[in-house]
Amino acid sequence: MARIRFRYNPNTLKYERVGIRVGTVLFSLLSYVAAGFVCFMGLLVLQNKFLNSNEEKALRLENKALAQHHKQLASIMMYSHHRLDELKSQEQALADRIFESRTTQAPVEDPSINRDMILMADANEYEHHTEALTATVRQLLAGARYLNEIHSGDAGVDKPEMARVTLLPTGLPLPNFEVSMMVSGFGNRINPFHKGIYHHDGVDLRAPRGTAVLATGKGVVTVVRQSDLVAGFGNYLEIDHGNGWVTRYAHLEAIQVRSGQKLKKGDVVGTVGMSGGATAPHLHYEVLKDGKNQNPVQCMVEGLSADAYAAMVLLSKKENQSFD
Amino acid sequence: MALRYTYNPETCQYEPVVVTPRLFGRRFLIFAGISLALGMAGLVYFNHNFPDWDETLLRKENQQLKTEWNILLNQAKKTSQQLAELEHTDDHNYRVILDLEPLAPSIREAGVGGRERGFENIPYALIQEGYALIDKLGNRLDIEQQSLGLLAEELTRKEKMWASRPAIQPIDNKQLTRLHTIFGMRMHPLLGYVRPHNGLDFSAPRGTPVYATGDGKVQMAYYSPSYGFVVYLDHDYAFETRYAHLTHFIVKDGDPIKRGQVIGYVGNTGTSAGPHLHYEVLYKGTPVNPINFFQRDLNNREYEKLVELGSRSLMSLD
Q1: B97 touching A, CB under 8 A?
Q2: What ipTM was estimated for this complex?
C-alpha cells in the first residue's frame, strides 16, 4: 500500500510530494542486507553449535583418540628409545671387553662424505678433481686391458709373467665375505691370554664354526698339521702358490685336504674352528712371500668394491685384541 | 526529521503520519522477517556452496594429528631398524665370537601375545599400527636385553677362562740364564738313566722370583724329596701347573692366585743339579710341553720352531 507521502514546505506554504530518492532506497536496502548478514552469522553459529553432522562427530571422536593415544605412545616410544640407547652402550661395553679397545666402534670414514665435499667445492677445484679422477680411471683401464690381454693370452706376455699375475693368492678365504668379518689385523695386537702386546702375523676373520675355508689361489698343499693342543695354530695348513707366495690357514676345526693335493682358487680346504690357542671361532689367515709375513689385507681384493676394501683396511688397522 | 503527511481523500485533508507502536511493530516485524529470510537464504547458499567451518577445522586438526602420528610411526620404525642392526651384530658378531648359536628368529619374534594388549578394539588403523609396532619393539628390546646380558655373562666366564690359562713365562727374561727346551724322554743327569721329563727347566740365579702363569688357586705346596719345595697350582678348565726345586714358597694350600703373582723363589732343592725352576703344565692330567703356554715375545710360528727344537735336545737339569 504505497501511499503517497507529503511534506510541508514552510517556504512555499505548500504540501509537496516526497519523491523516492536514491539515497533513501540505498539506505533501506543496506539496512536489510546488514540485518540479513547478522541473521546469517547468527544462524551459522547456531548451526555449528547444535547441528553436528555424523561425519563431524566421527572426526571429533577420531581426533580425540588420536591425540590421547599419541601422547601415550610418544612416551612409550621415548622409553623404548632410551632402552635402545642403553642396549647400545651395553653392546659397546662388550666390544670394549672383547677387543680391549675403545676405538673398535669408531665411525668408519664414509667415502661418500668426501664425494659430497668434492661436489660442493668450487668449480675450479671440481675440475681439478675431475682431471685427477680421469687420469686415474685411464690408468686403471689400461691396467685392466693389460690383465685382460694376459688372460686371453693375446699380449705376447711370457709365461712366468703370466703366472706371476694369475697365481697370486688374491681371493678371499671365506665365502659370503663381509668387511665386518675383519676383526683383527696384521701388526702389533693385544694377546687375549696374557694381555701383552705381540706381533700378529696374520688377520683374524670372524666366522661361525663350520664355515667353509677356501683356498685363496691356485696352489699345492704343502703342510697339514693336526693338533689337539690348546695352544699355537691348532689344526692348520699351508698352500704354496708358487713364486714364493704361501698362504696359511689356522685354528681350523677340520682339514679336508691332504698334503700334496693340488687346489684351484676357491676350493674348500677345511672348516672354521677354534683349535689351538684361540679365544673365539675364527680363521687366522696369513700370507707369506719368500718366507716373510705380509699384510694379508693387501692380497684380499677379489670381489670387494673399492669402498668395501677401504673400510676393511680401516678395520684391519685398529690395534685391538686378537683372537689368538 | 520533518513530519510526513498523507492526503486523506475522505476528509480532503493532509494528515500527519503518526507512527503508532502498532505500526512500528508491524514495520519491525516486516524488517526482521525479511532480514531473517535473507539470512536463511544466505545460510542455505553457504551450506550448499562452502564446506562446514567446524568440519574444516576438524579436518585440519585431523590432518595435523595424522602427520604427527606418521612421524611417531617413522620414529618407531627407525628405532626398530636400529634394533635390528643391534640384533644382527649380536647374532653374527658377538655370538660367533663367543661361540654361541645365534638366537632363532622365532625367539626374537616371540613374546607377542604374552602381554596384555587390547588395542585391537581401537577402531583406528593408525593407532593399532602404532601400538602393534611399539608392542613388538618392546618385546624385541626385552629379548635383546636378555641376550646381551647372557653374552656379558658368557664373556665373563670366558675371560675367567682366558685369565686362568697358563700364558706367561714363570721367570722374567732378564733373570733367565738359559731355557732348556727339553720335553719328553731324556737321560736324567743325577739318576743316570732315561726317564720322561715332563716340564721345562729355567736356569736362573737362586732367589729369582717365580710367577704364577695363570689365575687359579694353590692345590698343594709342600716339600717332596724329588721336587724339593714345590707348588701345584690348579687353574680350573683342565689346566694345572707345577713349580719345583724352589728355595721356598710363599703361598699355602687353597690360596687364590692371580697371574703374575710371586709364589716362590728359584732354588736347588730336591734332585737338582743347580739352581733352576722346573716348570710343568698339565692339561686334563697329562703333562704337555709348557713351551706352548707362554707367549711373551713369541708368535705362533716361532713357537712351532721352539717346539721342534725342544724335542731334539737331550740335556736337562733334573
Answers
A1: yes
A2: 0.72
